[in-house]
Amino acid sequence: MRTRRKRLLLVLVGVAGLVLATALVLNAFRDNLVFFHTPSDIRAAVVPLDRSVRIGGLVEDGSVRREADGVTVYFRVTDTVVAVPVVYHGILPSLFREGQGVVATGRLQDDGVFRASQVMARHDETYMPPEAFEAIEQAQREQARTLLPEGR
Fold it and tell me: Are residues 83 and 63 in contact, defined by beta-carbon separation less than 8 angstroms?
C-alpha cells in the first residue's frame, strides 16, 4: 500500500471513530436528560410515562398527607390551574410545606399519580425555582385567555 492510501485510510478510520464516539455521547446525554413540566402539561398528556421528568409548581394547600410509616407522603403540586397528585417515599426537605414552591423529579404512572424520587423545596422566603415561577405564570395566562369571550 502506498503512503498516500495509508494516510487516507488512517484519516477515514479516525473520522469514523470520532463520529461513533460523538453518537455514543449524545445518546447517553439524551437518556439522562430530565425535562421540566407543569401540571398543565401533564393534563395535556405531553409528559411521557417511560421517562424521568421534573414537575414544578406550588404544594396545594390542604393536600399534604403522611402515612404512618413516617416516610411516605402524598401531596398535590399545582400551577394554580391544574393539580397533580404526587407520592414520595423518603425524607422531605425541612422547608417543604403547603403553599411553597417545589420541584419533584420522578415518573408519571399510568393512573396519573406522579411517583417522585426527589423533592426540592425553595430555600428562603423570596425564592421559587425559576421554572416553577414561569410555569405558574404561563398557566395563569392560558387560563385567562380561555376565559375571555370569543372575538376579543
Answer: yes
